[in-house]
Design brief:
323 residues, mainly alpha, 11 helices, 2 strands, globular
Length: 323
């Protein structure tokens, strides 16, 4: 009798959860589409006024950048690490609420509120925590094949590097050097930025990037085609070198989403991307290149994501594993 009661309760909870998730997806989709329509019908935010008034980064003035100290928590996401390095998130990267993450990501990068609900909620569910009441450390989200995945653009696979808190200088340089787009339309940070201090954990990363990019003209932009080709190259490399390589369709889309952030939020601007990826710092004077009033919606973002992912030739050059 106890077994039957437990089984019925589990079935009931599963059905309830499935119905709620279906309703949530419908709600989120309708909300996101409405925000996309509002963006289409309203004027863009003015240059220099993308970051909301009263929020860190207003007018391109970001809080002091302090690299992480021993014991601080960092993860495989440069965007979240940069926020912690500037004190927008707790500098130690610990005890962050998911709801806090939503609001601060929206203000910093001008993602739409629908996007800023979907992603932190997804992280919470991966970690089996509540979006409304849960807390996390940045390193918590690096559970393998949760948010963190193989064939990252700027980090080695966990097979080779367990700690995902710092980028890999060689990978950052390789990504930036594949850029063939025209000079950015909006003035970027200087194309020959100084190295971080020797005591910074990012010093070795940045030094490697600078060394590998000697004589490379950084006054360029990264394009969707560049990103597709580079993602394909990374997947081939990781499949060859990682005996435990795994990358399902969902994580392929997530990898393309990460790359598409560089194209949308950062406009593909190589000088800005150097600072963001090598030092996990927001450049002085920088603001999101997305100027839509309601921010970058999931619908609009996915246009770039699928353009990038569908251009990855590696996916059609590999044999089909049907059995």
């Amino acid at each position: 009798m106890v077994l039957i009661n437990t089984a019925l309760r589990r079935i009931g909870r599963g059905i309830t959860s499935s119905i709620f998730e279906f309703c949530f997806v419908v709600y989120l989709s309708l909300w996101d589409i409405s925000l996309t329509l509002i963006n289409a019908l309203t004027f863009n935010r003015k240059v220099g006024r993308v970051t909301p008034k009263g929020h860190p980064g207003e007018g391109g003035i970001w809080p002091e950048y302090i690299p992480p100290k021993p014991g601080d928590s960092r993860c495989s996401c440069p965007a979240l690490n940069a926020m912690a390095n500037h004190g927008i998130l707790p500098r130690d990267g610990r005890n962050i609420t998911f709801r806090e993450l939503s609001g601060k990501v929206r203000a910093t990068y001008n993602f739409a509120p629908s996007f800023c609900l979907y992603v932190p909620r997804d992280i919470a569910h991966i970690l089996n925590r509540s979006y409304n009441t849960g807390r996390f450390d940045l390193s918590d989200i690096d559970v393998h094949n949760g948010i963190e995945h193989d064939a990252s653009l700027v980090r080695r696979d966990t097979y080779h590097q367990i700690d995902q808190g710092l980028p890999d200088g060689q990978l950052v340089a390789s990504l930036l050097k594949c850029a063939t787009g025209p000079p950015p339309r909006i003035q970027a940070t200087p194309s020959d930025p100084p190295l971080p201090p020797n005591e910074s954990p990012y010093f070795g990363v940045a030094a490697h990037v600078v060394k590998d990019m000697t004589d490379f003209d950084m006054n360029r932009t990264l394009t969707p085609t560049n990103l597709s080709r580079h993602l394909g190259a990374r997947r081939r490399e990781c499949r060859r070198d990682n005996g435990q390589y795994s990358l399902d369709f969902g994580h392929k889309i997530f990898g393309s989403s990460n790359g598409s952030t560089l194209l949308t939020i950062f406009g593909g601007c190589v000088p800005d991307l150097y600072t963001f990826l090598a030092e996990e710092r927001l450049p002085d004077g920088w603001e999101s290149r997305v100027r839509d009033q309601m921010g970058l919606t999931i619908f609009t973002f996915n246009r770039t994501v699928f353009r990038v992912e569908l251009g990855v030739e590696e996916e059609v050059n590999q044999p089909l594993n049907l059995l």
